[in-house]
Amino acid sequence: ANFLSEIKLVYREPFICSIARQLTSPAHLCSSLAHAEHENNMATAEDIGKHIALFERELEAVMAFWTAHSHDSKHGGFLHCLTESGEVFDTIKSGWVQGRQVWMYAKLYNTLPTYKTPEILEAAVRGGEFLLQHVKLHNEKRCYYAVTEEGKPLQLQNRPFTELFFIMAMTELYRATGDSKYQEEATAMLSQVIHWIRVDDSGLGRPKLAGSSPSQELGRPLILLNVLNEFCGADETLRKKYAGDLEWCVQAVLNHHDGQWVREHVSPEGNLLPGSAGRLTTPGHAIEAGWFLLQEARARGDVDLQR
Fold first, then answer.
1. Whole-model pTM?
2. Rounded distance, CA 143 to CA 166, Å?
3. N or C: which terminus of the chain carries fewer CB neighbours within 10 A?
4. From the CB of residue 32, how many other CB atoms can be counted at a distance below 10 Å?
5. pLDDT at position 289, please?
6. Which residues pair with 266 in a beta bridge?
7. In 3-state terms, what secondary structure has residue 143?
8. CB 55 within 8 A of CB 19
9. Considering only CA atoms, which of 224, 298, 229, 290 is closest in space to residue 256?
10. CA distance 77 to 143
């Protein structure tokens, strides 16, 4: 709420969230916001400077907290059930958090000079090795949803999101270290996840039951679009290789927007579902949908998709 209050002068759909969450440099952020304000005539250079300073303060505070309290120096990985003062109240380790924190550290290391330090890289690598040794199933393209403090399996989910965040972590860790094993892990897992999401998800333990109706949930194409953008980056060869998957994700996400609402569940053709499933909308997913579509629009230079 505080974040949105601070940026209300320039907030237009999720544009500002896209810029802030991409962890771009202040100079790039200033340039991007300046372009937006020129187009929309919504804020001044002084406003932009205030927002940049706000983002920098918030990022510094977030990183100070997590680097001080979340690193598990004994077992590896990250502890994340923390009180406001940083005390651990549960030692369970979520596969989602392990993947996203490795990605965050590696992304910061690769993007912002302030965080290009041996300590940040070491923490990212330790987290990445915890993912490989304990979160990813050995000899399988699956990841545990949750493990113990030591890395013993607790839960295996029948949804592909831990694997998607694993891909993001391995992708950015490869860019930070140059170690090809991380790239190989990301590529192999991406192939599996695309098959689950686009072709057949029965390998996740989701059998097709006689009474169920075909439907598409927003989260799958939404996060896959984000992961594909992170995986491909500015590599045109990769973007061409995955162009069909990127376009499928874009259209699948757009199918959930009926002109007024962003529906969480629609039919495979994008039509409204009857009952409670068709009525569900998740504001956070709506914001992410705009963010990831804008990210893809910028990569393509696609003005129509940006609108």
1. 0.85
2. 8
3. N
4. 18
5. 95
6. 216
7. strand
8. no
9. 290
10. 15
